[in-house]
Amino acid sequence: MSAPRLPLLASLLGLGLWAASCATTETKPDDALAAPDAGAPVVTEGTPDIPDRPQEISKPDAAEEKKADEKKPEEKKEPPKEVVKVLDSSVRDAFDQGMRDAIAGNPDGAIARLQKAATDDPRTHWADYNLGVLYERKGEDGLAEKSYLKALDKQIKAGVKPKVDRAAENYAKLAVRTGRALQGEAELKKRIEAAPDSLGLRYALAWTLYAQEKLDEGAAECKKVLKNDEQNVSAMFVLANIYFKQSRTELAMMVLDNAGHIDINRAEIPNLQGVILLAQKKKTAAMEKFRSASALREDFPEAHNNLGAMLLAAQNFQEAAKELETAVRYAPKFASAHLNLGNAHRGLGELEKAKAEYNLAIKHDPALAADVYFNFGVLFLDAEMKDLDLTKRMEEAIAYFNKVKEAGRGDDTVEQYLKDASKAIDREKRRKEREEKDKLRKQKRAEEEAKKAAEAEAKRKADEEKAKVDAEAAKIVAEKKAAEDAEKARIVAEKQAAEDAKKAELEAKKQAAMDAKAKADEEKRAAAEAKKAEADAKKQAALDAKTKADEEKRAAAEARKAEADAKKQAAADSKAKADEEKRAAAEAKKQAAAEAKAKADAQKAGKAGKAQPKPASKLGDDDEGQPAKTTTPPAGNKGGKLGDDEGAAAPSNKPASSGKISDD
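Predicted structure:
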């Protein structure tokens, strides 16, 4: 499929004039545009806020007070107070509700209520202005034009001379967009005569002059505005358009840069910068400017169209469709946007939507017929349609491309597409011829196969009939043979049954004899086992009696031995006690002797104290130098302990046969 041909030049560069020509709206007027009763609000750019309720007033606004002062004679007495009529509450309520309906997305309800609010009172000019905005968004350009002019006339009647007049600007852009620039020029000049100091009317006039190629006159009007207000961004914007039209690109960009510094939120400025950058083939920078313009104002169809057209060139059909749908939502008669949106739908394969948008484009701007026919031709050339075969599609494509040529748009691309369509028709014709030949061959083959099938079917039926007769004959033979076989089988079975009965009787008798013998053997074995069990029981009883006698005899012996051991132990204990008493007595006697000897030795030492001391003997440790006593027992007692101080052996209570001496 060929890439969609996008009329970028027609959709972008042609917008230098009406880049931002859709109606602009605000929540409140500019500072110099005071509403009649303390500031009546208007529709916003984008999504408006719900306005405050208009306040009742009891004195003239600042402009009216200034007029009164100018007319007042110089005198000392108090001037009479001017009576100001308060707007009727029903008018205020209708205005408020109309604003709420507009915000809620109910344009019909908003229009109905704003019509009630747009009375003959000059202070209701904001209701007429908002009606113009809503009519323009609905595509009712005639009613929008009348509402803008009515708003201007009320402002002039009320003596309002704003620096920025949205009604004048929207009227001028609408007149230009609908091809009524000359009529717009006349209407604006007529109102400038009534309000020559209105800067808004003058730069609106400059728009209409610019659209008619009256560039010098338009520039002169812009300069008149800038002379009185050097920061008037609207006049600067129109002047930049004029400079761009005059190919003074750098000067146009300089004016736009200055305007952008003054008002950073005015979306028309980056949009026109994008148009200029695109003319300089700076596509990336241009797309960024269009993005900025679209982001600043949702209700700016030209910016969305320009961005959408560039996205189409990049074949970003999804995002392009989104931007272009926004454009036609706010400008339903924007033919170039409908054309581009049709291309986006074609790129997405949404053919019915593409056709609808192409038809809207040519309906709103017949001058785009060549572009629309061209895109229709590409649509039929490239897209597959269920309700049209290839030949009819190509014929439709050729018809549209011929319309393009009739509109004076014939070029190499159109000629090539015509050739492509003709070749496609030829290919399709040859394909159909091949299909027809294949169909005939298949039909002949099918007839031959049908004939063979019929013959085969007839043979099959004959075979089936023969098989049926053979089956009946075979059935009779089989039944006869089956009867004979059954009779033979019965005779054999009866004979076999008699033999089996006789054999079974013999087997039964043999088994009975065997069972009787087995029973006798079993009884004999049981008797032998009983006899043996009786003998074993007697033998076991005798053995148990002997074991019991032996056990009683052993227990008596152990009792006697225990008694003897007890007596022996008692004697030993008695002897040990006697030996202990003797030893204790001997120890006491020996201790007494030692004490007596010590006392005697002490007395001797006292008497010999006056004599010369003698050297101590090394053999003993007493004062006499006597040899130390030894505890070695007499030879006759060696090997046993002494029972007393005489060294006599202690008597023993143990039997003499033991041969042991007591050692306790």
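Summary: Residues 1-84, 616-664 have pLDDT under 50 and may be disordered.
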